[in-house]
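Two proteins, back to back. First:
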Amino acid sequence: MDLAYAAFQRAFQQETGLDLTSYKQRQMQRRIDQWMNRYGVQSYNDLIKLIQEDPEKREEFLGYLTINTSQFFRDKRVFDNIQNMILPEWKKQGITPRIWSAGTSIGAEAYTMAILLQEAKLNYSILATDIDEGALQQARSGLYREHQLQGIPPGILKVYFTEEAEGYRVLPSLQRGITFRRHNLLEDPFGRAFDMILCRNVFIYFTWETQERLLQDFARALRREGYFVSGSAEQMTDPGKFGLKRVAHCIYQLEK
């Protein structure tokens, strides 16, 4: 390993709490080098000084590093399966589901789940977490530009959003069941007894060892017969190792 980069990893974790050794090194180092080239930062030491001394650049860099890509109803097939297969089951059982959107970014996934749950006339509690406070601020505001709303059916947009000068804002009624909170998947404790955990398109950036550790922690955080939802680009080769079985595209259920 590049010794300068290894020293940067240690200093960066001490400064931000983010452990870069849990991410795929080549992929992460390439992203960092691209950001440094963009802003004319000459060395990893200079980068550490910059994020120590410039709060704005620190937040910008963290947002870039944690790859905040999110959209409403992303991978429609997944949400169709949740709507048609899982929500009727919860309604029949009289469950008020506890849901965790892990790596929620700007909140599109959490609000998508809230829309589906309200459409199904289910009460709910959603915990939406991310390591990037800047992304969480937008999620809490509920305000989205038009280009961020691609994938939302026009009827849903009309019912659950109000148009403003700067874009569209989710209705307060949609926000009420959601708690947005900063959380570091690699360091902070997990909750328990969730009916569903969505962690989509996050694992692909982690090393295989980190993925296995997180999957074990997620499985422990589910209630019996709870659901874990992954991203379509992520492969779970041995879900049974964690007590999970695949029940639909990207959806796994904790066995009894």
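And the second protein:
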Amino acid sequence: MNNAAQTANLLNIDIVVYPGFKALEAIGPLKVFDCANSCLKQRQLHGGYQVSIASTKIGLVPSDTIMSLQATKKLDALSIPDLAIIVGADEIETALANCPEIVLWVTTVADRIKRLLALYNGVFFWRKVAH
């Protein structure tokens, strides 16, 4: 299988971060998809996950720890992933108030995205959109 065909078989996953996000809630899913890709490769199976760190702008995004993550994708209503995972924060109301672009993006893409997931203290809140 060529590179273009392999890329076409990948599900696009955006892990959405913003200033003050919980580092553990971003790293956990990142590692899960990395392990899934490794298992698929070891078994020589097709498919997998193309994971991106997304935010309101490209660049370093500080977490609730000394660690920051590099957002390589800007949230865009025209470039919707197969799955978006919005990570939690200790003060989620404050975080969302400080980053209204994320709320606007979710509102804009909610009826078009295949799967939208939010994390809070390690608990998944899942919304599957019917197509």
